[in-house]
């Protein structure tokens, strides 16, 4: 992954697809494991969080690691990035230390929305369209 920018385009796309698919698989597997007695919450938190990390990591293949890190912390994405990273950590804390299923679910939902908000920031005018759609639906 460190040398992702020196990989050929085909290899980079294959790496992106594989990493993104693994992230989706982990997220779905984590959701299924939530209902396992006793250890379900911890398994859910770990797999769901790993799924989101793999999904974010998949873009490293397309942009390269340094470019991705620079773009993650641009002013337009800073809040979404910080919320997403904070929710990743808080999900694991609520599962392992606080043993609170409700908080773990809340932080996973927040992870999802922060990741979605972060992702659409790469599509021109997508955030404006979402804001307008939500405001129309709420009014």
UniProtKB/TrEMBL annotation:
InterPro entries: Vesicle_transpt_Got1/SFT2, Vesicle_transpt_SFT2. Keywords: Membrane, Protein transport, Transmembrane, Transmembrane helix, Transport. Its main location: membrane. Belongs to the SFT2 family. It is a multi-pass membrane protein. The chain crosses the membrane at residues 16-36, 42-66, 78-98, 104-125. This is Vesicle transport protein. It comes from the Eukaryota. May be involved in fusion of retrograde transport vesicles derived from an endocytic compartment with the Golgi complex. One of its GO terms (cellular component) is cytoplasm. It comes from Alectura lathami. It is found in: Membrane. The keyword Transport applies. Pfam families: Got1. GO terms for biological process: protein transport; vesicle-mediated transport.
